[in-house]
Fold these 4 entries.
Entry 1:
Amino acid sequence: MNTDTTHNPALQSWVASANAADTDFPIQNLPYGRFRRNASEPWRIGVAIGDQVLDLKLAQATGGWPADIAPLLQPLANGDLNTFMARPPAQRRSVRQALSAALQAGSPQHAALTPCLAVRADVEMALPCHIGDYTDFYAGIHHATTVGKLFRPDNPLLPNYKWVPIGYHGRASSIGVSGQQFHRPVGQTKAPDAEVPTVGPTKRLDYELELGLFVATPNALGEPVAIEHAEDHVFGVSLFNDWSARDVQAWEYQPLGPFLAKNFASTLAPWVVTLDALAPFRAPFERPEGDPQPLAYLEPGAARAEAAIDISIEVWLQTAAMREAGVAAHRLSRSNFRDAYWTVSQLVAHHTVNGCNLQSGDLLGTGTLSGAAPEQAGSLLELTHGGKQPITLPNGETRTFLQDGDCVILRGFCERPGARRIGLGECRGTVLPARA
């Protein structure tokens, strides 16, 4: 993926906060989200710029856009990100370039667009688009290996893992936007020493540090997407927390996989960072020596040099006691998407190789993204070695799994010399007590 003028690290915006070194949303980013200023206002699509949101409904109406851009802005003005995502990559890229030009310092659109800004902290965010279907993959090999060791010490990875991207179909209806609060789920579990299972609130509630990939241009039923075209069918990336009830999962997952342990809640960041914005942070696709190379339909070929993406992702925890004492969240771990075993293009190529038709707005979860080191674990299941080794927080509290009142915060960013740091915002969710 080639960079262009929109990635120039020297670019400055007339939105002053976008020029701050620590902002997640400089002019080189321009992620999309769905927001409203108050409950009486229809949802609309905006672009994050510094601590502001550019309202694309108001912006489109100002005029001043190139003749070929104005019609492309119409679905965004209508609050319909799905339709915009379905447009060809070249059209989506041209809108990015037009937005970048309009928000640059010295832009002739400065005066007209200033009234189209809203303070980001003052708006309500929703899911960025309609999510019709949700698939969760298992692309993090370090997570798969560590969890496998807990259950199969002599054979942690099943024979198919290094050949096929493992995934399952999840539940789209329970995906909520950052800020989501959900009740501790109830399910059926069976203690190792019990003769029969019981029903009750999960005692082993966990988070999963993931990324969500949004499908852009759909493919027709029966028409696989070739790997060399796969990224044309992906719009962008968000932070994603696929909460898990580990005790429910252990009892129910055989023979058909996750069910009630996963479908009670998943939390998604409100901003979609486009693949175009991530172009400066591409990394080589590499397999460890001795591992099998991908089958032909999963082979990146000439794109190997930039098939992976360097995205740092973090988990932070703030307990109820920390919140009441005014203590900030504590970082539990940091890992990186470049360590995933399967790339974005491989996930799409595999998902469609049987003719499955992906739709604009479908969400593909990466699965838990852990690193090789223990402190890079993307779940409490790994950090606490299956609940056997509690972690101690700075205020003296301990955790094996999540307790009521815990707030989990995911954060992500990309940075490298010669490029402007960009962020993914944050993905925040809080555990409430189980319903009576």
Entry 2:
Amino acid sequence: MLHAVLLAIAADGLLALMDAIVKTMTVRYSTFQIAFLRFGFGFAWASLLLVCFRPGLPSRETIVFNTTRSVLAVITATSFFYALSQLPLADAVALAFLSPMFTALFGALFLGERIDARIVTALMAGFAGLVLIAGGRVGSGTYSYGAVYGAIACVISAITYALTLVLLRARAQRDSFLIIVWFQNVGPALMLAPAAALAWTAMNARDLAIFILVGFLGVAGHLLLASAFSRAEAARLAPIHYITLAWGVVFGYLFFAELPGLTTLAGAGLIVLGTIATHRPKSEAPATEADRRPV
């Protein structure tokens, strides 16, 4: 269990670091170019892993399924990366925690799970957290009106990421995780290429190296998460994921000298409480899958 906890903490740290680095790039490059480079270099790293470990050829069903997930991955990444260009890092990370509540809701709608008072309460808590984080600061001296669009983009990202998790549950026991990660990168890279070409900005060698690192962090973070979840039950690891909030605060301060205000902390607290409520296992039912960080 300790090994699994350490892996989960390291994975969330790598993914939070990736988000912080991406945020530094938003002032020079378009959202489509950033997302394309993240997935393009992620594809290169994932392909290297396939060559090394040779998990076998995917089936036709696997290709169709993961292509569908790729479309959702494109929406998730582009909306979240846009949000990073409009919001402080800690705020964007906190709003990303809306995804597990939507996961519980979609699980009830699409997988036949029962909608109960916990899901309704959690969604209300998440909405209240959203209002606290973004609503009270819009138009202030340090929070532009673009924050409204950033907050909306975060909600869209949380919804589409929740849908990818619901779809993943149907295939997680059938496909190799290396295959899933490979498709998760190659599909979005191909779909984003035309939009990235239209909005392309020339890069210097330093920025190119940074995007290579971003691709590596994305693949490495999700491989560490997979390793952690293979060693311990998802429900037991769920509380560990909330350390992402701490990672967001740390990297927000180190990279951008941002410190979260009381409203951000209060809003994040409401979102986390709602997440815990929807993912607390009942005594008569198996634990639900824990929340994971949007790619």
Entry 3:
Amino acid sequence: MIASLASEPIAVGNRVLFEELGIALAGEKEIKDGTEVLVSRGGRYLGSVVVRDQLRPSAAAAAVKSLQEMKIQVVLLTGDTKAVAETVGDQLGILKIEAGLLPEEKTRIVAEQVKKGKMVAMLGDGINDAPALSEASVGIAMGAGTDVARESADVVLIGNDLTKFVETVRVARNCRRIIFQNLYGTLIVDTIGIGLASVGLLNPLLAAFIHVASELTFILNSTRLLPPREKRKPEHADHIVVPA
């Protein structure tokens, strides 16, 4: 950001901006454990503000690990410095990191993966994530994110719990698996029925039995998607009052 106060230009930004403006940093060393925001006034470097990101409690390494166990490659795309990104990546167990990205660079990386035929899910919550969210196969915005991110996404998570996203992917995969099981099962049963009918071994009674039995089997197979019922604990009275 560049503004003017009392006819003096004030600049706030990163080292790239200060290099473009020709503002000397007087040997100031780059901060490695946070996002560095430099400040100048009248072309003179004043100092810096360091912003350190704290991981959300829900952004636990367990969520990332669960996605990786499902053979999903997790990539961290961030506009923060490489040092900050690597620190966060180490805490979460993310092996592939792209740091120092502008919004258009995030969009380009996502678009390249989509063009390669990969199914890309992009999770984001900021204004800078909006273009990449709309470019992904499935854009997912965090519930507490910006309005622009939510409008650009296909799915909005309620809250910021990443474990909910993991559970959603797991349920979706189970649903897809059962759909194909039922589809292939139907094709197999119909093929057997056609074969028996072609040689004269399929009478109406047997045909009805095969049809009903197969339909019940597929329905029971689909019930595996239902969430398990929680067992209710029996309520025990501490005192029993008997009226006189």
Entry 4:
Amino acid sequence: MSFARRARAARWQVPVALALGVALAACGVAAEGARDASKTPQGGIGSSAATVGKPTPPSSAGGTRKEVADPEEANSYPAPASARHAAAAAPAKAAVTAVAAGALTDAEVRRALAETQAAQKRAASARKRQVLKPVPGGQSIGGDGTIPIPSGIPETVQKVIAGGNEIADFPYVFGGGHGSFVDNAYDCSGSVSYALAAAGLLGAPQTSGELEHWGKPGPGRYITVFANAGHTYMYVDGILFDTAGRSGVYASRWLVGSTDNTGYVARHWPGL
């Protein structure tokens, strides 16, 4: 083939090759998108939150992980169909918002340690003086439904309290908080799971039956989760976090006093 003919052929081959490459790339993107869509879990972040009043009971992909009906549901103020609540923030975001972390120099660490020790003494004294008053009609604490985050406790415990505060006034719906941590209603185990996840102590929502095996056996110093097949609650820095005993649909999950732990397994996180 002459040089002129080869040049003319090359001029046609380049655009054709480019067009073919673009087409193949588009097909690849479409196929990848289809694969991604097929892998997106239902109820995960990005899907619609559980509809208040029409929850989907928690279950695993194999259909074996199910939570039995909560015997304390009557005291949890299940939400009527008319109740609406905006979706919660991701647990980690709720914790970061309330508990800010930053790097310190050695001198700042020594100064902070001295301040922390002093704050611990003040916080311990304040807790002794603190008197939580329930809202009439139940055991929910008054005020805005949240509790103060003490400075003299481990940061992990602070984050659990921050997580509990984030959803303190959300309505109770069986199955709520199990399709995703980000929801607009939570049941007992969905509530405990959310608060624990705010501190990185859980990677996915768990049922009350699964929380019977969370962490280590026995009570903890700062956090003790009580669970059985039908219900779960916990004590965080001595304050009860429970969906039973609330004063209304949007009443706080932080409750005054204590409850009967008979029939429940006590679990704690190592060191806490």
